[in-house]
Amino acid sequence: MTNFEIEQIAFDKASIRKREDPPGPLSNWPVVYALNNESDVYVGETGNALLRMLQHRKDPRKQHLTVASVLLDESFHRSACYDLEALLIQWFYADGTYNVLNANDGHRNEAYPGRDVFQERFREVFAEFRNRGMFTQTLEQIENSEFFKLSPFKSLVADQERAILDVLDTLFDDIESGRGASMVIAGHPGTGKTIVGISLVKTLKDIELSRGIGDSEQASPISDYFARGYPELLKYLAGGDSSSPRPLRVGFVVPQQSLRESIGRVFDRTPGLSKSMVLTAFDVGQSAEKFDVLVVDEAHRLNQRANQPSGSLNAKFAEINRRLFTSDSTDRTQLDWIREQSRFSILLLDPEQSVRPADLPPEVVGEVVGEAKASHHYFPLATQMRVAAGSDYVGFIRNVLAGRETATPDLGDYEFGLFDDIRAMEAAIRKRDRKHGLSRLATGYAWEWKSDPKKKALSGVPLANRPYDIEIDGRRWRWNSAPKDWISSPNALEEFGSIHTLQGYDLNYAGVVIGPDLYFDTAAQRIRFDRSNYFDKKGVENNPKRGIVYTDDDIERYVKNVYAVLLTRGIRGTFVYVCDGALREHLRRVIPPMA
Question: Start and end of every GIY-YIG domain (predicted)?
């Protein structure tokens, strides 16, 4: 064998047995394989393909599969096979041609000698599988899709896997001991909090349905939880036993509407999960039954008692408080609902991504973090998974916005630069989009949303006839016209995305305009907030229910958080244009120029 080949074998006992004599690489070589029929696929890796096929034939959950495709390559070792297996599972899942039958028993995103060379080879393997009709989309389409980026089969780096193992250890210990406290998984932008949360939900449901260690394909520490004992503990938590089981009630709470819709589609495609598991805090508060486990994404975005987007939600907030706690205390928050309505809660948070005054108060978030640390229920994430420039870039952005002295870090191949011409930045974003896809313009809420289709005067008015919202140097744009999954919408390149359509998402390139809501005070030598140029009504709204009036300094913290989030969306690069001339000159010291 000088090149890889894909051997196809009918997935029945007789056809497999025929290949045993004479012995060959199918019985003694590291391989990756896919078992499929017209609708389902299962991916694995092994050192003895024929023996593993016979073992799979005994599994009633795989007996309906009809074809085994075995990848043979003389250069492959077990590390390469393990890596390719993980990628194939993610690619099959994101492509959507097949239902993926694999359990989420742990895939490590590990380095090994020659990995870059092997991963180029893997792309050739993908092309061959696609030529055989096993993939519908191109690899670029797959890897830019929400199903790939939010996949429950995503390979994990070491600290993500460590966090999941620590959460599982703590959860099972707490179930056995009968105690419980909220767990916190904390991390800066790009550390993969959402992926960890999705992976946890999938893993818990897979463990619940497991029949023992044989269900686990991987040699991962996570696979240990598929052994006898752990599934029984989850059945015990659910209040059932082997004779009268009740499904484990697991919910994934997502405060942001756009991201919630995307994750709902991901859950609907995933065996063992469903869109109904993706919840708002109001869904949790109104539930007649408690949840066994609630995982809360962006938990800092849960609301305190404040004016809600509609009168009906204000009424629901009060009603839920009264139902759960007998009275509508203004001190109650949606976090109280989460804790009251679940036996165990796992909170994914980053206090510096809070972007509105109605979010959980900083002192509440601080108490939660402090309690979690004191009870050893706090699990940090550190590895930067989104921005190719690494964690130094995220800290650098936050330091710049906070006015702390900082030097531009070595960003390697990451494209980062300041534009003096908005048209040039837009052209650069369009060029990157043609090459890589998912390159978008974004800005803070520094312009009124005149084109908002919810306005009565615009009801039924086509998009092309709605007014423009943003004008810079004579060039005009509208705000994001799609409230859900805007980054993949047809008009996205012609519009600007806001924090409410981008928080939690990845872009390949972000072109960020720092609008006139921030300016540089040359006398004080600091970046300040200009309320007159900020149009997020909920972003400046006082809280009369709790007697809170927000000063400009209070709002400035949220606005700077907004820009910190937007400036950390780009995987490959971030371009910056600044409206305020003095601020542009101030940032020129630390952001390299781009033509």
Answer: 28-100
Domain ranges of the chain: 5-149, 158-380, 391-587
For residues 471 and 477, what is the distance between their CA atoms, to the nearest angstrom?
7
Residues 6+ apart with CB under 8 A from 381: 159, 160, 163, 185, 186, 187, 188, 191, 192, 193, 196
Q: Does domain 158-380 have CATH number 1.10.238?
A: no
pLDDT digits (tens, 9 = 90+) for 197-244: 999 999 999 999 886 545 455 567 888 898 878 998 998 888 865 555
Closest by CA to 518, choosing from 510, 506, 526, is 526
Would the pLDDT of 579 be above 90? yes
> Are the C-beta atoms of residues 485 and 548 closer than 8 Å to each other?
no
Instruction: Report the alpha-carbon distance of residue 47 to residue 31 in Å, rounded.
Output: 6
* CA distance linking residue 12 with residue 74, whole number of Å: 26
Check: CB of residue 249 under 8 Å from CB of residue 238. Answer: yes
The larger pLDDT score, comparing residue 110 to residue 84, is at 84
- Is the distance from CB of 287 to CB of 338 less than 8 angstroms? no
Helix (DSSP H) and strand (DSSP E) numbers for the chain:
20, 20
Residue 468 is classified by DSSP as: P
Tens of pLDDT, residue by residue over 396-430, are 999 999 999 888 988 889 999 999 999 999 999 99
Decide: 58 and 211 in contact? Cβ < 8 Å. no
